[in-house]
Design goal:
This protein is α/β, with parallel strands linked by helices. The chain is 42% helix and 22% strand. It has 17 helices and 17 strands. The protein has helices spanning 3-22, 42-48, 52-55, 66-70, 73-84, 128-179, 186-212, 225-231, 233-240, 261-277, 297-300, 321-326, 344-354, 422-434, 445-453, 472-482, 514-522, and strands at 27-31, 86-94, 100-111, 117-126, 221-223, 244-249, 257-259, 283-294, 305-314, 358-363, 369-376, 395-396, 414-418, 438-442, 460-464, 487-492, 504-509. The strands form 4 sheets. Strands 12-17-16-15-13-14 form a 6-stranded parallel β-sheet, sandwiched between helices. Strands 6-8-9-11-10 form a 5-stranded mixed β-sheet, with helices on one face. Strands 1-4-3-2 form a 4-stranded antiparallel β-sheet, with helices on both faces. A hairpin with a 5-residue loop joins strand 2 (86-94) and strand 3. The protein starts with a helix and ends with a helix.
Length: 524
């Protein structure tokens, strides 16, 4: 070979060496046939942390985690590259300081000009950030899919519950009217009483469905969680039985949260019962709370701000990933037939979200379950031992004890009932007529306005809220301007009722019974 050719070859080799040495984003180095490092570039030094004199001559298995070394992965990779000619893989690798990074690796077999195997060329790239970004994107997609799925199921559940409420109300009202008949045979009275018990169970079921759909009526108020939990400790212990130990742990100073205390007590009881069922041989349920600041709006789907994180932990059987993914879906249950509706956890999920919070489950098989709830901190401070109630300008009727003891007001004998459901309309009119009221029905707000503007004087209007054309709240607002002397009662099974609707004197939660209706009508 001529001198000029040799010089050109030398310059080419030197340029190639400088090129490889100057690449800082890739670890490029050579291995001998046994897998010992024989060259080292600046990228390898930056990524792996070794100086050339510290690593050249050592086996490249130094870059693998101990578990991978125990499985002989470094030698398996060398053998695969030697046989096939090239191996491309990804996995965890270890730097000199012991930290790990996710590496994309290409391992090539190197032969000399005569075809003799002389070693390997290895290129490693740190792709930890790309992997984390891809995983974060996948988690965000999964969270969005889960949110959309639950939203769709919630809308369907809410619609079904609304229609079911109306059916239950018609059945309940007519059964109650039957119980008022003096000529009802004793056997028939027993059957009616049993039917009413079934209706009440159906009402409880629809309330849970509405809670999951976030359409349950809630009365939010500042509540001290420690007081609430300690206050229901006896109820929890009695409900869960002697084999379950209930422990509570709260800091001395914990901000008040904005929740409906009655509904939230029901949530805690449901979670306690779920924990008990997951611990057939007994165990411990721990309830704890701490203040947290949410800064990342994407992490929990919550606006940034101050929250209290309430955790309910059990020592039960836990859930596998498939069960955990479906745990908050309505009607999904792992309990036997007749042992659960599958609405307990979904109800808690809906109520927590409706309070402005978030719920997350974490569990693994045989490792127990943790239910975390983030609840918004209330602006109003509540001291331990106190429970602040919101001021209610409207009359909210729940369970009057003796409706029959209240006389019919002299100025409240003419009642207009407005509802687009004919079964509910006829039942409500019949219940009022049975009590001596002059009750008339209208199937829409427009028809009601025509009757009111006509010759028939009405002192009370009982109107459904969710009606096509004009809602009950809009009807009440209209009557507040045109007929301010009319007493308007707004009824709905949903929570989407305006808080300060003009003209509304009382509210009714559907499905309401005879006692609830009469109490609202007779309220001054």
């Amino acid at each position: 070979m001529k001198h000029d050719d040799l010089e050109e070859l030398r310059r080419s080799h030197e340029q190639f060496r400088l090129l490889v040495q100057g690449v800082a984003d890739y670890a490029i180095y050579m291995l001998d046939p046994e897998g010992n490092v024989s060259s080292w570039n600046s990228g390898a030094e930056r990524i792996k942390g070794y100086l050339p004199e510290e690593i050249i001559g050592r086996h490249y298995s130094a870059f693998f985690a101990p578990d991978d070394v125990a499985r002989r992965e470094p030698w398996s990779n060398l053998q695969a590259a030697k046989e096939v000619g090239r191996l491309e893989t990804e996995g965890w690798r270890v730097r000199k300081d012991g930290s790990r990074f996710w590496a994309h690796v290409v391992l090539d077999r190197i032969d000399d000009e005569s075809g003799k195997f002389v070693g390997f060329a290895k290129v490693t790239r740190d792709v930890t950030e790309q992997r984390n970004a891809a995983r974060a994107l996948e988690q965000a997609r999964e969270a969005l899919f889960q949110s959309q799925k639950l939203e769709a199921v919630g809308q369907l559940t809410g619609g079904v519950a609304h229609d079911f409420n109306n059916l239950l109300m018609a059945i309940h009202g007519n059964l109650e009217l039957l119980t008022q008949r003096q000529d009802l045979p004793a056997k028939a009275r027993t059957l009616v009483t049993n039917a009413l018990s079934g209706v009440r169970r159906g009402v409880a079921l629809t309330q849970r469905m509405l809670a999951f759909a976030r359409r349950q009526q809630l009365h939010l108020e500042p509540v001290n969680l420690a007081d609430l939990v300690y206050g229901m400790s006896d109820l929890m212990r009695t409900s869960l039985g002697p084999s379950v130990v209930v422990e509570a742990s709260f800091p001395l100073s914990l901000p008040a949260v904005l929740v409906d205390p009655n509904q939230f007590e029901l949530c805690l009881l449901n979670l306690g019962v779920n924990a008990r069922d997951a611990m057939p041989d007994g165990g411990t349920v721990t309830i704890s709370g701490r203040a947290e600041v949410v800064r990342d709006p994407d992490a929990l789907g919550l606006p940034p701000g101050d929250y209290v994180r309430l955790s309910i932990t059990d020592t039960g059987e836990g859930m596998d990933p498939a069960t955990l993914a479906r745990a908050t879906e309505p009607f999904f249950t792992t309990k036997g037939v007749g042992k659960g509706t599958g609405l307990g956890l979904s109800m808690v999920h809906g109520i927590v979200q409706q309070c402005g919070g978030a719920l997350r489950l974490s569990s693994s098989r045989n490792e127990g379950t943790v239910v975390d709830m983030w609840l918004p901190v209330a602006n109003q401070v509540v001291r331990p031992g106190e429970r602040s109630a919101t001021d209610k300008t409207d009359v909210s009727v729940q369970e009057p004890s003796s409706a029959g003891a209240m006389p019919v007001a002299a100025n409240a004998t003419s009642v207009l009932v407005v509802d687009d459901d004919p079964l509910v309309l006829s039942t409500t009119v019949e219940m009022l007529s049975f009590e001596g009221y002059d009750a008339v029905g209208a199937s829409s707000a427009l028809q009601a306005l025509k009757l009111i503007d006509g010759t028939s004087p009405f002192s009370i209007v009982v109107t459904d809220h969710a009606m096509p054309g004009m809602t009950g709240a809009e009807l009440a607002s209209h009557l507040a301007d045109s007929h301010p002397d009319i007493h308007v009662i707004l009824a709905s099974g949903y929570a989407e009722l305006p808080g300060d609707t003009p003209g509304v004197r009382a509210r009714l939660q559907k499905p309401y019974g005879r006692a609830d209706l009469l109490a609202a009508v007779r309220a001054e």
